[in-house]
């Protein structure tokens, strides 16, 4: 599609795997705050057959030869997708060794939704992902503190709202990992990476929202959350977004053209603390810290469980209420440039991912459930292989299915948490909802799961949860 961001001319097409994967290369212009930026766009064709959104790699032209790293990345993503390892907006890929052919400082990629119009000659069935290279410690900060914080800093650097969707070779890093970790209050808090969650500050109101499809994942995170927990949201599609870097004095935001008078600001985290103090919500860094009583948190969790809106009054502070609602945001600003940042008045992440797939299920096959990672995907990748992990999960499913077959129970979903480490037996924790199965069944289930031969694990402990729908038996 050729849109208002520029035009495109086809340069060529690289066939990487005949009949499976190719990459179209276009030359186009990107309209930025400082003028038209010549760029090369690499668009994949062949990932969608494995359920992976196609990808676009956009690189500003510098006079150097056309880079080859998008072709290498396309092969890598294709291989992972064929193994059932998919990525989406907000996910990150980490390099074992830094460097690509146009910049040796690149340590990984973050994936984001595209602008409304791409200067590309390729027509796609659904919007692709933008793959953005990260430099130095930017990758580690995305992993630990969320992609929205780094994307906002990139938006401030390029003066493009909400963030640039291209890579400019030679750009300066937007942060230093050690400095960022030492300065941010989130270094002391565990965190959940929830790119589907939107957190918006609107006057005296702080609003959390999620789409109906993602509501189950939010429920799961809030059930498991400790008393002090940070939630790392995605981009909220508002006219303003908070931005923060160490040493900054006071709140700041990047602003979309025409958005100067808008009251809604996207927040890049919300830190929720349960305690006995006076309930309050305070703007800090590029997000909010919220103190709730136990009863208030219970009300919020009940609303999330029921999928209904709620508004909780906060008597102390400039923000007077914390609201939750289910529904998509009305606006998207992914295709507009930003004004310069304006001053305004005023922990290991768990990633939900599909279960590793082996063969296409038949209609009669039992549910495979889903996997929630409690350690990073990169750590899991280094510790074991997809085939061994898939085999282990299949054996665990068969244990559960065999024990529950023909047993009277009222359990709808079973959560089995596994912790695996080198030269150590399998460690298991089991939870059920809404009603636990008979105790004697749980005891046998725990023992059989602990007795499973684990996959080969290297270097470190890995942890993940297997969530299986059971279906009650009257």
Automatic annotation (TrEMBL):
<protein>
    <submittedName>
        <fullName>Uncharacterized protein</fullName>
    </submittedName>
</protein>
